[in-house]
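I have been asked to look over a protein record a colleague put together. Alongside the sequence sits a line of tokens, each denoting a local backbone shape. Please read both lines and tell me whether the tokens look consistent with the sequence. I do not need a full report, just your reasoning and any doubts. I have pasted the whole thing underneath without changing anything.
>
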Amino acid sequence: MTAAQRWLDGYIRAWETKDPADVRAIFADDAEYWFRPDDPSPLRGIDAIVEMWRTEREPTAPQHDLRVLIEDERLAIVTGTVAYPGHESYANLWEVHLAPDGRARRFVEWYMTLAKPAADSPDAD
């Protein structure tokens, strides 16, 4: 298993548990968390990231299909989709800038809201 896949597995675990220890296991102490590439005020530092994950409320349990697209020892690019049933679905591309210990020192989300299927579409709920 690669460092990027270990990081992604840890991210999914932390996302599901919201356990501060799980979040600390994937983000460096001085990490930056960018909610979008042009974020005017990204989160800085592990305590701010832990607090955000602890208090963030999602509309429903997310369903995700995420995978490592490319990686080297310093950067992983993760792609895939995340759906919140009954709410929005997103196409994602994440930049994960890795520290030597495998934790993210910088995380940047790139995402787009996916169009909802037309009511008469076979894909509609």
Q: What stands out?
A: The CA atoms of residues 58 and 84 lie 8 Å apart. The chain has one domain: 3-114. The chain has three helices and six strands. Residues 3-114 form a domain with the Nuclear Transport Factor 2; Chain: A, fold (CATH 3.10.450.50).
